[in-house]
Amino acid sequence: EVQVVQSGIEVKKPGESLKISCKGSGYTFTNYWFGWVRQKPGKGLEWLGVIHASDSETRVSPSFQGQITMSVDKSISTTYLQWSSLKASDTAIYYCARLMSTVYMEVWGPGTTVTVSS
Amino acid sequence: EIVLTQSPATLSLSPGERATLSCRASQSVRYYLAWYQQKPGQAPRLLIYDATNRATGIPARFSGSGSGTDFTLSISSLEPEDFAVYYCQQRTNWPLTFGGGTKVEIK
Description:
The structure holds two protein chains of two kinds.
Chain A: E1 3-6, E2 10-12, E3 18-25, E4 33-39, E5 45-52, E6 58-60, E7 69-73, E8 78-83, E9 92-99, E10 105-108, E11 112-116
Chain B: E1 4-7, E2 10-13, E3 19-25, E4 33-38, E5 45-49, E6 53-54, E7 62-67, E8 70-75, E9 85-90, E10 97-98, E11 102-106
Parallel strand pairs in B: 2-11
Antiparallel strand pairs in B: 1-3, 3-8, 4-5, 4-9, 5-6, 7-8, 9-10, 9-11
């Protein structure tokens, strides 16, 4: 089955670091781009960036440049989204999705809920 | 950055009615526009890509049209499971961007 599985709920304090994961299965992981989308409580979708699973080529939205880092571990078919210092405003659901060849988000994970609160 | 403006913000309709959702781009995106559906508590689902192409498994009652700056998602006859929020997204320029969404609610 073609799927994207994401890591579980995270509760963190401001200033802490965090790395969430997104594992692909049912296809050749390194053939695809993977994207990350943020959804704050009760709000719309925000595109964070994409990473290619083969060579880790990355494109990050200017709105999030310097705030997030994306990476890949091909050996375990997993891509990551990480923060070095979380803020309360990072509280959101973070979705990972496999992209089609045409760059649209075709196979979505269930989302990882991140809560940042003191 | 290309800004996508969706209208209306909320559409109140009854099952069986036709829904027409609009997405307008701040500059031409040619035909490089997708539509997604999101139900409460669920991840978004790709419905339409490149303006007019239905994604795998999407029922024929969903159709997309438009090019340049003006796009439409139509649902020919609303089923109970179609009441959700719909987003458009462009892939013409980086960064990729989403519209603000249209909520289709039961009247």
